Amino acid sequence: MKRIFKLYIFKLTILSLTMIFISFGASAYPIKKMYQYCKPYQNNGFQVKSMDAKGKINALTCVSYMTAIKDLGFYNCTLLNQAKGMGADDQTGPFDTFEMVKQTMASGKAGINAVIASFNKFAENNPDKWVYKSASYFKEFLSDVFPCKLDK
Amino acid sequence: MKLLITTLTMIFISFSTSAVTVGDLYKYCKPYQNNGFEFNNLGTVQIQNALGCMFYLRGMIDRGRGNCIVLEEMNKMNVIDTNKLKVFSNLTANDKAPLNPIITSFINYAENNTHQWKYSPLSYAQDFISKKFPCKIKE
Q: Do A138 and B73 touch (CB under 8 A)?
């Protein structure tokens, strides 16, 4: 019973954090704009060869931004694993700290084209969220799809 | 705590899964800064490089800011030990930060640390982003 309650509180906390994170603002790089940059690149088979100059610039913008986001997610994952290996995850306190941080800040290794495809799919399925910052939905299109695996 | 942060920093200095290196990013960013953060008078390749520089660093800033918000909220909820949060915030989180000062901060860092050009810029985000615009986790 206690364990189920703990799990419920944990899930509630993750959900609250996600909601707070998502509402951290509309920005100069909202999902709508990034989708406009990324989708033609995907439609072109992740190649820029036959694209015009504007299309190439948009594709470059998409790739650069998404590369930083995915790399930082994997960096955080590696950091968590290293910290855990050093004994920082002492399991004190009511929650699994590392699990919580993993779900909100880290992601597994992922190829850039797969990340772009995942982002585009998320954008297409959630047009009501297009005014928000692309990085706000990191969990939905990156962490949940390419989860960080913590070593036992 | 400091020892843990230092050790983790040392580990991540050798972290280089990203194809982008400090040296690459410096080459992308420097002409754009020299041109006063304007595209005028830059060639096509230099504009493309400038965009790569801008959006790679913009992505790092946005993710770092997002991480900071999560950590701040975790701290407010009082569910995780503040010292643990500080470990994460020191390495992967930052406050809101404007782009051009971060580009300048990165360029200064790269010029002062040429021996690190072969490594990922992610390993040094704390030096050129987080230290300049720190994520503030209150006690």
A: no
- The reported pTM is 0.79
* DSSP string computed for A79-125: HHHHHHHTT-----SSS-HHHHHHHHH------HHHHHHHHHHHHHH
- For residue B14, being part of any structural domain is answered with no
Q: Tell me which of B29, B73, B106 to substitute to probe the interface with A (most A C-beta atoms closer than 10 Å).
A: B73
Question: pLDDT at position B5, please?
Answer: 46
Q: What's the total number of domains in chain B?
A: 1
Q: Look at residue B33 and tell me if it is in a domain.
A: yes
A16 confidence band (pLDDT: 50, 70, 90):
low
Extents of the domains making up chain A: 2-143
Considering CB atoms only, which of A86, A92, A94 is closest to B7?
Answer: A86
Residue B114 lies in a domain: yes
User: Where in the sequence is the domain holding B124, given as residue range(s)?
Assistant: 20-129
Q: What is the ipTM of this complex?
A: 0.75
